[in-house]
Amino acid sequence: MRIERRIERHQLPYYLKVFNRITDKPMGYIGNVSLDGLMLISQLPMLVGARFDLRLKIPGQDGLRFIDFSATCQWCREDVTPGGFDSGFALVAPPADYIEMVEALRYYFSFHSYAASA
């Protein structure tokens, strides 16, 4: 039985690279994002149940801005693209910077209705 998702996701393939905060090695890209988690698209499978210390490097006006957070891998499966894997992560106490980024992405990728001028 398929469980319906209750959290709205925003698709972001190949734009935001995710790094291991300890080693600074790239782990993959954000596939989609919500306030509570994200999907990582990677070349290697992730260990389900493991907690990861992650980092996003966001370009800003003053150079790169880091968003550091911890997340637990909830699931991992092969992607439809050969050699790729999709992994779902639940964030552990998302920091304010992460929440701000999700809200900014939601606004950026949403359609806004504008009142027609008469």
Description:
- By secondary structure, this protein is mainly beta.
- It has 1 helix and 7 strands.
- A hairpin with a 2-residue loop joins strand 5 (51-60) and strand 6.
- The chain has a single domain (10-108), classed as predicted glycosyltransferase like domains (Thrombin, subunit H), CATH 2.40.10.
- A 6-stranded antiparallel β-barrel has the order 2-3-4-7-6-5.
- InterPro entries: PilZ_domain.
- Residues 5-100 form the PilZ domain.
- This is PilZ domain-containing protein.
Short synopsis of the structure:
This protein has 118 residues and is mostly beta strands. The protein has one helix spanning 96-108; strands at 10-11, 17-20, 26-33, 37-42, 51-60, 63-78, 85-92.
Query: How many strands appear in the DSSP assignment?
Result: 7
Taking the alpha carbons of the first and last residues, their distance comes to: 51 Å
**What does the main sheet amount to?**
6 strands, antiparallel, barrel
Give unreliable regions as ranges.
10-14
Number of domains: 1
Q: Per CATH, which architecture? A: Beta Barrel
Give the fraction of residues assigned to helices.
Answer: 10-25%
Strand portion: over 45%
Secondary-structure element order, N to C? EEEEEEEH
Q: Could you tell me the radius of gyration in angstroms?
A: 16 Å
Number of distinct helices:
1
What structural category do the secondary elements indicate? Answer: mainly beta
Apparent shape: globular
**Spatial ordering of strands, largest sheet:** 2-3-4-7-6-5
Domain PilZ: 5-100
GO molecular function, one term: cyclic-di-GMP binding
InterPro entries: PilZ_domain
Protein name: PilZ domain-containing protein
